[in-house]
Amino acid sequence: MVEIFQNIRKIYRFSAPCEELANYIEFYSQSVLDLSAQYVKNEFSSVKMFPSWTPTFYINLGSPYYIDLKDTRYHVREQQDVLILRNEDVTRHKLPADNIFTVKFNPGGLEAVSGLNQVPVIDKIINLNQILPWELLQKVKRPVSFEERVIIVESFLLEKLIKQVSQDHYVKIVNDSIGEYQATGMQLNTSKVAEKLFITSKTINRYFNRVIGTPPKNYFSIVRGRNALTAFVNNRESFVPIDYGYYDLSHFYKDVMNLTGQRITKHQF
């Protein structure tokens, strides 16, 4: 299974964060366990995910599995929980018995909530027991519902957020920059975004590298490419490249190749 090109969402349940955490967390999810969905899970031996620079917790409720990150294969044990940044392509090798609870943060969201900067996580897989309390992980692993797990994790993260005395200035500027870029239809370059926030291009570059770990030009390109490819896959006939800042379809196809390493013509929609 390849993210975006194929519907990865059909093998997971999703829940949106509460309003207080909406700026920092994209979603909570868990593997679908319903027997009616097993035939879908059995179709795929792996899930390939493209770069997004989104820190993600993977809390393992089921079987061991393997993750490929930067040409290295890691074995995640049955009781092992991990944090991955997803700054590179990540492939998780699946089993039908998979059961994983996921918390996907927005770029900089982990730092805003817990004070943990994501830059040291680049190209690494971090054991979650170095970050989250053992007691919390054990509560999440109890035989409770998906909704109860969301409440357990969200209550902890809200408490962490409240303890952050004030929002980090760097994180705020990066969040404002991303919001400005998306609000203007992903049409602006880095200099124009900086201009709208009354900062210099040098400053916005420094802030993005400090908070996310990559320059704004690279991050904005990933955001545009992921959004455009999702729209194209969902409705090819109504897709208009210029709506996403592309000159034409050739420009869009080239960007998809740079982002995913795959040609659109390989896939049927």
TrEMBL record:
Residues 168-269 form the HTH araC/xylS-type domain. GO terms for molecular function: DNA-binding transcription factor activity; sequence-specific DNA binding. InterPro entries: HTH_AraC (IPR018060). It comes from the Bacteria. This is HTH araC/xylS-type domain-containing protein. It comes from Mucilaginibacter gossypii. The lineage of its organism: Bacteria, Pseudomonadati, Bacteroidota, Sphingobacteriia, Sphingobacteriales.
